[in-house]
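Lab channel / #folding
Pinned by the channel admin:
"Please post every new chain as: sequence first, then the structure tokens as a reply. Keep commentary short and put observations after the output so the thread stays searchable."

First post following the new format, from NK:
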Amino acid sequence: MNEYYSQGNSSWYGVEMISETHQELYNTACQWLTKQPGWAPVITEIGACRHEVRPEREPYEALIRAVAYQQLTAKAGDAILNRLRIAFQTEEARFPQPQQLKDVDSEVLRACGFSARKADTLKGIADGTLTGLVPSREEAIQMGDDELIARLTSLKGIGRWTVEMLLIYTLEHMDIMPLDDFGVVEGLHYLHSPVTRLSKQELAALSRYYAPYRTIVCWYLWRIPQLPDYKVFKAGRVANR
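Reply from TO:
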């Protein structure tokens, strides 16, 4: 899975802004990364980090969005969310409320493009929000990463990756590396092991190596397919499977 937030042009996706604090961290991380083996040409080709967060979103909305993008391209996820807005006749800057999602017929969600499993997950998120299992943003920022992951993955259909997207984009955590993410794993192989497949233990060790800049590292890893030699790397990976 690659970075799932579209760089869209609608208020439906939020205003794109990078704070001075984040920009300073991005610059520091890039300076460090440039000194690491293999990274200088990556940063030169891709450019400055432009990671954008969406702190205005509540965890409920962030989880619904993450589910929409699970195993899909950003373009497909965008289309599903737009149909969801139309189905509930909400304004562009607003989002269907938890009670609305809980009460709606699952076929309405299916018509938006959600699978039956995802429709059930959406209803579970809505119900969890109403009961308090899904925390408010104010509550979530007081929780540790592992605590929040354990709590939200108790919801049917919500895995670690989905919660990590919430941590990265909504709660603005800058040291998260989702090792269940295809784009992240491919990027790590491109930089560190283009031929030999890395074990889970080796991937975890690499993740620790990149602390405390792991979210920024992921921003670059998600963009490695843009590099001129990526197709050569990809062909080699396929040939060695």
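NK: The domain at 18-51+177-239 is CATH 1.10.1670.40 (Endonuclease Iii, domain 2).
TO: also worth noting, The CA atoms of residues 222 and 229 lie 15 Å apart.
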